[in-house]
Specification:
By secondary structure, the protein is an alpha/beta fold. The protein has a single domain, classed as Rossmann fold (3-Layer(aba) Sandwich), CATH 3.40.50.2300. It is built from three helices and six strands, in the order βαβαβββαβ. The termini are far apart.
Amino acid sequence: MAVPLVRVLLIDDDESSFIITRELFEERYAQRFELDWAGSFEQGLATIRQARHDVYLVDQRLGGRDGLDLLKAASAAGCRARRTRYCCPSR
């Protein structure tokens, strides 16, 4: 039986983070996940509103904006995600 793909959206303004995450997913989870990228607060919010993803990985800093503000805006717009992870830097 085929395992359904989990659609993941990474929202991060640093393209290198997407490249690293994509490589990791391809090495370990290529048959289980499909990874997309939104490179800004605005693009992330617009993509979340489309409700095409199962999981959202959100960076803490999105340019001059905050990842928590993005999640609040998405929630206020009526968006509901099955799973969301808020990524904070370790520094």
